[in-house]
Fold Dimethylargininase.
Amino acid sequence: MQKRFLMCRPTHFAVTYKINPWMDPAAPYDTTLAISQWESLKATYENLGHQIELIDPIPGLPDMVFAANGGTVIDGRMFTAQFRHAERADEGPAYRDWAERAGYEVHDAKHVNEGEGDILLAGEYVLAGTGFRTAHASHAEVQEIFGRPVITLQLVDPRFYHLDTALAVLSTGADGKPANIAYLPEAFSPGSQNVLRQLFPNAVIANIEDAEVLGLNAVSDGENVVLPVQATHLAEELRKAGYEPIGVDVSELRLAGGGPKCCTLELRS
Ligand code: ARG
């Protein structure tokens, strides 16, 4: 199924502050390599037939490449992001302006939420993470704005601080398959694990090695799943479940705690 994605070139990518356990401002990083890895991710999507929109990168916002955090776009409406940390605060208005200019109906968030980092559409449900970044109160806003049932999921491991680092949507229900996901159970509280088991009995289960290379930070079109090439166990499980895994190397972006999905905001008209 063809999709539309918003991406932001990592022109100003850097690791200069630490807002998640992956980031080490003292460690070296390579912006040129980050750009070339991002270019191949973009080319991978284009080869799969997806349409890419671009937002201009802004100097001084090194994490702006992580477009998934820029908002949530469903049914032609954008629910804006409100970042937890001051370092990323200015990205919110930048993505909001883009959405307004692109003609989306913009709904301003009242509570902290980091867009598709924590808010993922999976079939008839919106799965919403909380615990590290997105405030629980924003889940009610999401339900009201999109009129879809929101399932709150409690994240418990600081390495998997956004829902999209612990769970990937594989099929949306709109792609001819029942909605399905892949996830790392231990990244969630016991109650949330039960909820996921009930809602997605056929989910693909990732292991800790997959999650430690941000393997769950994957983008699926219902058939092809673009994921970090290092997540070999997850790729095999996806293949067994009937998906086509497509490995990409975005190791440089992982130094900031991001993977393919973080770089990709889905635009749903
Ligand atoms: N350095 C960024 C942060 O900590 C990485 C964001 C990754 N994005 C995501 N959708 N998980 O906010």
